[in-house]
Here is the input.
Amino acid sequence: MTALTDLTIAGARDLLAAGDVSAVELARAHLAAMERHRDLNAFITETPERALELADASDRRRRNGDAGRLEGIPVAIKDLFCTKGVPTTAGSRILDGFRPFYESTVTASMLREGAVMLGKTNLDEFAMGSSNLTSWYGPAINPWRAPGDGRVRVPGGSSGGSASAVAARMAMAATGTDTGGSIRQPAAFTGTVGLKPTYGRCSRLGIVAFASSLDQAGPLTRTVRDAAIMLGAMAGHDPLDSTSADEPLDDLEDTLEAGVDGMTIGVPEEYRVEGMLEVIDELWQRGIAWLEDAGATVREVSLPHTRFALPAYYIIAPAEASSNLARYDGVRYGLRCEGDDLVSMYERTRAEGFGAEVKRRILIGTYVLSEGYFDAYYLKAQKVRTRIADDFREAWTSVDALLTPTTPSAAFAADSPPDDPVSMYLNDVFTVPASLAGLPGISVPAGLDGDGLPLGLQVIARPFDEARLLRVARTIEEAAGFDTAPRSQT
Amino acid sequence: MKFDKDTVARVARLARIATDDAERQQLAGELSSIIEWIDTLGEVDTDEVEPMTGVGAMTLKWRPDEVTDGGVADDITANAPASSEGCFVVRKIVE
Here is the structure.
């Protein structure tokens, strides 16, 4: 029999339904894996007692014939989701000691569907980063190593702890959030599936806010089917989030195996960026061939404003962040560093409580919103955002989905990250445009680079067309036959 | 450089983040390179383009104007560094 920690959600669901395994057994197996892999620093807070309580309650519900969509499934929660009574840090010192007295809508929905929470996963501070190196709690680590050098690799970010936990089989699935690529990029780096739904699919209530017009929750899993199951339990309209969409979500598992025969898939020419690594281009060409073999028509499309997406993003996201993070002032929760007067208390608290990357973004955001610069930067970026969204709208008149690489490279070594902020930002070059347009995107593990590290392909679809998105993703998954077990694990 | 030390000091004051001279020096360099990179947006023709202020053409929903929550001052102040009788406590701001 497969080890309990190797089970997919779909596989575990069958065994649980047949009574061959209990939720408590699943929880124990995963809690043991968490202990074994503490070196990966994937969790900020482990909640083993709560996990066993939830698992026991789940087994009792099942005996009473009452099973939700995630009944008994052990999951990890990114530490950006407020969880009632459980510390919620956002990876930042400034939320030191904070215990929410309410539950985020997404995690509440998952718990209602029977999910068993194992703990809260590590992330870049306030979800700002592509490496997990900016967490106050130290970096999470990728379970994958290159066989040649054995150097520690980053899991990507910001949902790096979630990605690491799923890849290393500490959790069957995990929640992430994606503002400019924070689900898809770590999924690509860790050989997992990462789904960013359409903006508005999942409620943002109770998720620590970074950039409100971009933030969206989604799952990290080891299969596309599991992503469909997770999204079904996470999504839904929430009257308490005014940007939450009241759009029906059909059962995505029903159409998952429908294939791509007759679909038209676009390949955006502007994504063939200067200096693209050969291994990335080869993977992309293989992806195109897989979809053609499965009956899709593949054609080039143009998204002319692609190269302006990142600079626009680095105005809009920091602007929204500078406003959202104004609430951390040492008065209502978290850290307080006393000063001579109220303003110096604010200034000292924020100087001590925020890390370097968060400060950089707050300062950029404050600058572009300040008097005299607002029109030149913020308004300009919002107009460029319209152009980028228009590019996609034009593409949808001729194609059903887009295929691109997820990242420009595989996971980089933790001891030699890109050495300046702008180079680090370029990690999200392929994921940011869809974020600005609010479109659903998914990264599917599709191959290995020359060092033996995982690479992902990204599919992008029309708003609220997660059904087609997952059909394309499932076709790639099947053709790639990727083995998600991390190699060269130490 | 777009961002000199004085600009950093002004913006950091607006953002309520204390900085020392060494930090301001380093931030001036980092923020300048970010802003120079961002300036490439000037190449995009945005005449007669409406700014995108949100995703999707969402119409905000109406709901009855009713009290649905409240009376939880103790819960709200439970996380405060200093609180007293359901209020947050800060230093005196009016002499």
